[in-house]
Amino acid sequence: MEHPLIEAALAARHAPIPPTLRSRFHAFHRAHNLRFLLVINLLGQAAYFSYALADLLAVPDIAALSLATRTAFLLLTLPVVLLLFRRARSMRLLDMLLPALITLAALIWFELLTHSRSPNVATYQYASVIFIVLANLGVRVHYAPALFWSLAISAATGQGVVRLAGGFNEATLVFSLVYLPVLFFSLFISWTATHHGRRSFLLAQLDELTLQELLHANGRLRTLADTDALTGLPNRRQFDAEAERAWYHARQRGHSLALLMIDIDHFKPYNDHYGHPAGDACLRRVAGLLASHMREGEYLAGRWGGEEFAVLLTPAGPELAATVAQRLVDAVAQLAIPHGHRPDGSDVVTFSIGGALSSEPGVASLAMLVERSDARLYQAKRSGRGRAVMG
Ligand SMILES: Nc1nc2c(ncn2[C@@H]2O[C@H](COP(=O)(O)OP(=O)(O)OP(=O)(O)O)[C@@H](O)[C@H]2O)c(=O)[nH]1
């Protein structure tokens, strides 16, 4: 659902952030830009303070006043900056902190210059273009407030220049011709940065969604690959993998596991008389019965193939294996699925079980455990069906 929304935003010229993604957008920028904003604020503070030295050389008559003013500015605003970066949640506020402080700094600096009688003032005032550049360099999140503060800085600069020039004259015109390209250049920088910020957020969201979809599809594929479509039980592939794992753990921990091979009795005549769909339904009921007797992490039932199932019990000794096997044999009979075409006189579906334990002598591998269980299943069939033979 978010996919088309994000793609549409990316295709739009200004890459607008959809309202539903705004809080995520701010969290994203907090994660990516908070440090940058803090550093550029501190650099701005350091630069503003260090210009006391330039004042000393260019406008020495107000050097002491400049140093005192800049020190006061630093002492008053630096704690506020640090506090806001520690406490404030709003990225809009932190994004605009530097431009706002620069507006104040510009007002103060021009006020200082008006107190100087130095002949350098006329040229030195050009250094004020640093204000508009620095203010826009730091913007990362919102362009509209950046534009607002740029106009505020330009107004502070403009009134200062006009005051120093004693009104609108050639000097102010020359300053404007120098200042305006710098202003447009600076606005272009902040526009590009905020646009890039929105695009990188939207692209990151798209990547995240695509990854989620892939993981989901992967999960579904794995489930499909591991599950028997008819019964919903783990299929042979999955059961084999689980059995391998259980065998390995049993060996490592020194405990025994049991394997029960289960085969529905006289299923061919059932299929022949009731039809294949009824045979499928019967397989599903038997599978459901097995699943209902399993215990998470201890017993695992799987479809071995055809009308054969397998159950793994881990850990399991001979008593537990025999008890579970008998319980299953009784339970399937109690389901009382009619089977009126058995050649042996019984009239419900039953199954036979052959079981073996990994701790039995001569069982040195999983394949041997399967072989032994299979042999006992054959015995169960030969000795009358509907029973469990456990050795
Ligand atoms: N409906 C259905 N039948 C299946 C499926 N898989 C295997 N079968 C049937 O299961 C029957 C297995 O029959 P046999 O192996 O001859 O054995 P049986 O009749 O069960 O006899 P015993 O095992 O000796 O008791 C065959 O008729 C298969 O077609 C399945 O997925 N659906």
UniProtKB/TrEMBL annotation:
Entry keyword set: Membrane, Transmembrane, Transmembrane helix
Pfam families, A to Z: GGDEF
Entry keyword Transmembrane: yes
EC identifiers of the protein: 2.7.7.65
Reactions catalysed, as given in the entry: 2 GTP = 3',3'-c-di-GMP + 2 diphosphate
Membrane-crossing segments per the record: 34-51, 63-85, 92-110, 171-193
The GGDEF domain, residue ranges: 255-391
Enzyme class: transferase
UniProt-listed InterPro entries: Diguanylate_Cyclase, GGDEF_dom, Nucleotide_cyclase, Rev_trsase/Diguanyl_cyclase
PANTHER family attached to this UniProt entry: DIGUANYLATE CYCLASE DGCM-RELATED (PTHR45138:SF9), REGULATORY COMPONENTS OF SENSORY TRANSDUCTION SYSTEM (PTHR45138)
Protein name (record): diguanylate cyclase
Lineage, top ranks: Bacteria, Pseudomonadati, Pseudomonadota, Betaproteobacteria, Burkholderiales
